[in-house]
Design a protein that fits this description.
- With about 100 residues, the chain is mostly helical.
- It has one domain (about 1-80).
- It has helices at about 1-5, 10-35, 40-50, 50-60, 70-85.
- Helix 3 packs across helix 4 (about 50-60).
């Protein structure tokens, strides 16, 4: 039914659904690790392929309390400086 509505063949629909399911699984898995204090929000975001802001929104939606403290902020800042901003980040480039 989905393939007819989307007007795609079944294999495209199945790949799309599997991709979405894998992303949902990753978000849930890394949110759990974050809640347990085993990963930082930056690492969870990086592993899920989303921005830190998207990960924080997801954690808030799932009502997972913030584990964020100054030490974690410093680690996340170092991660961003080392790897650059994630795709879809909210940062805007400054003009001179």
């Amino acid at each position: 039914m989905i393939d007819k509505i989307e007007q795609t063949d079944r294999s495209v629909t199945v790949r799309k659904l599997l991709s979405r399911a894998a992303k949902d699984w990753k978000m849930e898995y890394f949110a759990k690790l974050y809640a347990e204090g085993r990963v930082s929000v930056a690492r969870a975001a990086r592993e899920c392929g989303v921005s830190i802001w998207e990960m924080m929104d997801y954690l808030r939606q799932k009502k997972i309390p913030s584990q964020y403290d100054f030490e974690e902020w410093e680690k996340d800042l170092a991660t961003v400086e080392k790897t650059g901003p994630a795709r879809g980040s909210r940062s805007k480039s400054r003009r001179s």
